[in-house]
């Protein structure tokens, strides 16, 4: 017999307990004790950024909890986040809202994210507190680190890029936070970078970089830089940069220094891909006493049948190269492009040499270039291929999985905020929720398992 719903007269009174509606294994229930402990210490640090007069403001803990919910479930637009928290019971429970409690207006987030939260650096403080919690739980070993970067598309149209000279920064529509941040950053440009302004800049988000990395379509983007402990893939530091290889490699230095200063962690080895295998970076890593498990970035090998640099022997004591015919290549000591020395043979030696066609068929004499940090590059080459290096190469994939998980499960592929400070805020929140999930999965045990452990 076909049944029929017979709820013609609704119940007048309901006994509803929100606490009982949230399953024990729900993600928000598992991370709630950690978040409660972390946010308890943040209220006092936020107090100076609130006025002592006027109407009471919305509890900052409520907005922080809502942001954590948003980045856990890929709801990064404030208007939609407020709607979802209003409708979803688990979100209400995590944000400590009863069924009748009002959800903050979406405009409140803009005021706090660009004002109090950014000025107080609250997201960085929460991130560090979560890392400390991971360390207390034994998830951070501190011996092996891995670093990598992933491109996140900026909130800027790829079709509206303009040459820097064609943009009128005094126009009213250019008076934005992102533009002000870009203009202020021009004075702080690293002089060692020796770079000109890019050919194209986004007028709405000029801090982003015009990039086609990772075989993607050309776009404006930011580099999400993660430094992880390879034991359990805990993110120990995060940095936002324009999506340029130079900036991403340079960001590793402050990340390692912050990690050592704040957490007292200094790795024995660092794993990275070939983009980090420059002489300058390898020399810095070796100087810090860290083993570089990084493939050397080397373009000296030739594929036209002529001698490569590896066919020439370097005499360290005399600071010269010896060619396959036993002749000497000397240098003037002049450093070119900031990092390269040239070793030149004599035309009197190369002209009648029997190996000339195999050595320098198109030039009067052979020239060999050598990085001023070649010793560090040689040190990295010695490590390459060892069992420890191969293990680090496998462990390095964990940081790539962090990026894949962020884009797939958290739907984070395009920026929501503009400017480097906006990217920094978003990347800190992303790292916070990923570490929270790692820590919650480590600490949480099913109720049946807990009962079994006590019997």
What would you say about this model in short?
The protein has 455 residues and is an alpha+beta fold.
Q: Could you explain how this protein is built, in words?
A:
Helix content is 41%, strand content 13%. Residues 450-455 have low confidence and may be disordered. The protein is an alpha+beta fold. The two termini are 49 Å apart. The protein has helices at 27-40, 42-46, 60-72, 78-87, 89-94, 106-113, 116-120, 122-136, 177-186, 245-263, 279-287, 347-350, 356-359, 374-383, 387-395, 397-409, 419-443, 447-454; strands at residues 144-153, 209-211, 219-229, 234-242, 269-271, 291-293, 313-315, 320-322, 328-329, 340-344, 367-371. Strand 7 and strand 8 form a beta hairpin. The protein has 18 helices and 11 strands.
Secondary structure elements and pairings:
Blueprint: H1 27-40, H2 42-46, H3 60-72, H4 78-87, H5 89-94, H6 106-113, H7 116-120, H8 122-136, E1 144-153, H9 177-186, E2 209-211, E3 219-229, E4 234-242, H10 245-263, E5 269-271, H11 279-287, E6 291-293, E7 313-315, E8 320-322, E9 328-329, E10 340-344, H12 347-350, H13 356-359, E11 367-371, H14 374-383, H15 387-395, H16 397-409, H17 419-443, H18 447-454
Parallel strand pairs: 1-5, 5-6
Antiparallel strand pairs: 1-3, 2-3, 3-4, 7-8, 8-9, 10-11
Most strands sheet: 6 strands, mixed
Mean pLDDT across all amino acids: 87
**Which parts are unreliable, with pLDDT below 50 for 5 consecutive residues or more?**
450-455
Number of helices: 18
| Shape type | elongated
- Structural category is alpha+beta
Strand content: 5-15%
Topology, number of strands: 11
How far is the first residue's CA from the last residue's CA? 49 Å
Report Rg. Answer: 28 Å
Helix content percent band: 40-55%
Please write the string of helix (H) and strand (E) elements: HHHHHHHHEHEEEHEHEEEEEHHEHHHHH
């Amino acid at each position: 017999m076909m049944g029929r719903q017979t709820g013609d007269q609704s119940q007048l009174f309901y006994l509803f307990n929100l606490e009982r509606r949230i399953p024990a294994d729900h993600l928000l229930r598992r991370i709630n004790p950690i978040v409660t402990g972390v946010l308890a210490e943040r209220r006092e640090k936020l107090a100076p950024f609130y006025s002592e007069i006027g109407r009471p403001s919305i509890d900052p803990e409520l907005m922080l909890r809502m942001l954590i919910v948003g980045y856990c479930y890929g709801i990064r637009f404030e208007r939609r986040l407020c709607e979802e928290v209003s409708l979803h019971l688990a979100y209400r429970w995590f944000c400590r809202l009863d069924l009748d409690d009002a959800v903050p207006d979406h405009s409140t987030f803009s005021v706090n994210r660009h004002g109090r939260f950014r000025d107080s650096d609250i997201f960085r403080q929460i991130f560090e507190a979560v890392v400390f919690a991971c360390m207390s739980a034994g998830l951070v070993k501190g011996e092996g680190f891995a670093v990598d970067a992933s491109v996140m598309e900026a909130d800027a149209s790829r079709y509206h890029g303009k040459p820097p000279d064609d943009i009128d920064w005094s126009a009213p529509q250019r008076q934005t936070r992102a533009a002000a941040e870009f203009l202020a950053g021009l004075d702080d440009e690293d002089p060692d970078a020796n770079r000109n302004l890019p050919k194209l800049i986004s007028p709405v988000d000029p801090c982003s970089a015009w990039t086609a990395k990772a075989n993607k379509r050309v776009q404006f983007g930011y580099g999400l830089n993660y430094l992880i402990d390879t034991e359990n893939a805990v993110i120990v530091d995060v940095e936002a940069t324009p999506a340029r290889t130079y900036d991403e490699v340079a960001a590793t230095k402050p990340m390692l220094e912050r990690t050592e200063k704040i957490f007292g962690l200094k790795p024995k080895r660092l794993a990275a891909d070939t983009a980090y295998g420059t002489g300058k970076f390898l020399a810095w890593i070796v100087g810090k006493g860290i083993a570089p498990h990084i493939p050397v970035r080397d373009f000296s090998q030739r594929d036209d049948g002529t001698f490569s640099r590896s066919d020439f022997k370097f005499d360290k004591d005399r600071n010269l190269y010896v060619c396959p015919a036993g002749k000497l290549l000397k240098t003037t000591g002049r450093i070119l492009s900031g990092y390269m020395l040239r070793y030149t043979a004599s035309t009197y030696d190369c002209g009648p040499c029997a190996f000339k066609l195999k050595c320098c068929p198109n030039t009067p004499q052979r020239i060999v270039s050598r990085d001023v940090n070649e010793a560090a590059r040689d040190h990295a080459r010695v490590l390459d291929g060892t069992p420890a290096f191969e293990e680090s190469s496998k462990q390095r994939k964990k940081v790539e999985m962090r990026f894949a998980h962020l884009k797939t499960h958290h739907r984070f592929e395009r920026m929501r905020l503009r400017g480097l400070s906006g990217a920094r805020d978003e990347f800190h929140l992303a790292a916070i929720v990923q570490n929270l999930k790692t820590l919650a999965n480590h600490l949480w045990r099913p109720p049946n398992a807990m009962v079994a452990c006590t019997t």
